[in-house]
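Task: fold both queries, return tokens.
Query 1:
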Amino acid sequence: MSPEELFAKRLAELVDTARGQKGIVSDEQLKEAFPELTEDKRGLIEDYLKGHGIGIGVAPKPEEFLTEEEHDYLKDYIASLSELPEVSDGEKEGITISAMAGDVSAQKRLIEIYLPLVPDIARMYAEQGVYLEDLIGEGNIALTTGVTMLKAIESPGEAEQFLSKLIMDAMEEAVSDALDEDARGQRAIKQVQEVADKASELAEELRRKVTIDELAKETGMDRNKIIEAVEMTGFKIEDIDYEED
């Protein structure tokens, strides 16, 4: 494994650790992951972690990485949760036991109890290509599903960790899908640009617009990829003569 691959692996493991600690890693954990840290490298890692909603020692404040609109949304959402009735630890345990046994009313009550977990976790995934409101939506769905799956745990004390993991998995999937979509978009842009450039070069050489068949034959480009590119632009690549194909 190259030094670059090892560095990336350690950083990914540190992020995973922080996810399990509500977006926080200790200074000791940071030093353990990167014992060779220089001040410059530490600054880069701290910036990276902060960009992923992760703090060292303390969780970063929402206003540090949320847009004004997201901050206002989060503030209003948390305020709405404050209206939910509070429960003691003993009541929570009793409700969890009933939920584990399949009691639907207890499961619904447990959703209310753990709703505040969702925005708390969502802030760790903010600024990664998914709107905060959408992250919270995904988290709420995961929580609603999760309370029906509590028979998988052995004791009520495991419920919060179990549900938190489901919520995090849902948000990570949303972020991953967003990144995949962005990557597909970038590939599409590259494909269109390549076809447009090749068409422009050939049109300049022939001093006229070119057909798709000519472009494929003269450049060696795959005909289907050319067709995909022109369809993505709505047949707007100006140097291609569509009437001849």
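Query 1 returned. Query 2:
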Amino acid sequence: MVDAHQTFVIVGAGLAGAKAAETLRSEGFTGRVILIGDERDHPYERPPLSKGYLTGAAARDSVFVQQPGWYAEHDVELHLGQPVVHLDRVAHTVALGDGTVLQYDKLLLATGSEPRRLDIPGTDLAGVHHLRRLAHADRLRHVLTSLGRENGHLVIAGAGWIGLEVAAAARGYGAEVTVVEPEPTPLHAVLGPELGAVFTDLHAEHGVRFRFGARLTEITGQDGMVLAAVTDDGEEHPAHDVLAAIGAAPRIALAETAGLALAGREEGGGIAVDASLRTSDPDIFAAGDVAGAQHPLLGVRLRVEHWANALNGGPAAARAMLGRPVSYDRIPYFFTDQYDLGMEFSGHAAPGSYDQVVARGDVGKRQFIAFWLREGRVLAGMNVNVWDVTDTIQQLIRSGRQVDPEALSDPSVPLPSFLD
């Protein structure tokens, strides 16, 4: 039973944490709500950091989840710039870096993830960057502007979503860009070689140079500044700046030290939670990037790092904290914008889980929908420069029904007809 004397603490003031606090209030919770973040900025959304804000198309203020005054107006206590350094499950307390100890009745861990670091010489040079936080984007936006003005070179380690979006932004500023990727195509594990090649061609047309099948082994510099990036094939690539975009790791240290159950590596890691986003401790929940959630529809444990999971997972966890019945079965969804290509991806198709990829439309013109199938059932769908189809794709995934792959590839067959 939830009452007005209870205290709900949210650790992590990103999108998931901020939306959880918002939901607690909108659902009528009148107890104490405390939102703790280790950054000094108010809660913000992360997609603009590699998209609109980085490219200069969006203002800095547009990234924030709420206006700064919203939190006081809704009696949400903010502790910004304060890491949580200890979680005591027995005492139901969290300790902050400044020594403050806060009691909780229910706790939400929305600690997110952090960029993986390059383990090579030279990463301490001033021109080596990561992109995860607003402060990173502030700095990188300034760097890209300077590189474009001076015809400078940016080397990006990793051809995942962040690496490609930053490459597109950098070319928009006029910077020279080289992307180093150990796989044979961008996004190889997600899209496979055929559809990964779509992004190779897109970026090559805009002047990006790729070095596939290679890894960075050293970043060289002088007087603390980057001069070049060296790959394991012995090639030296001129560079004024280097971006490490080799993935992210869930921030589980607090949960691990407290003895909460963790998801396995093969499940994507993170804090293990059930379909209601509850951890192995009945008074602690987890949401967003850090949560390895048992998906009730897909039947697997997933850790999803994308915006929509934070947007929807935070509110779901808040409702579960309030004792409401929750079964978090959202279809994983993410999107990207690169140059003139807009894409939405729905579903989950891990390598080896599908037996067929079907394209509907013109792949060469980058206006198509791709479907990942297993035994005729749609596991995932990606629409590229084709709009207003996401709901239908997600309904196809949810239905679990078999479809005719040949008909699915035919644009003259209406997509909703596969749901009839």
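Both queries returned. Flag for query 2: The radius of gyration is 22 Å.
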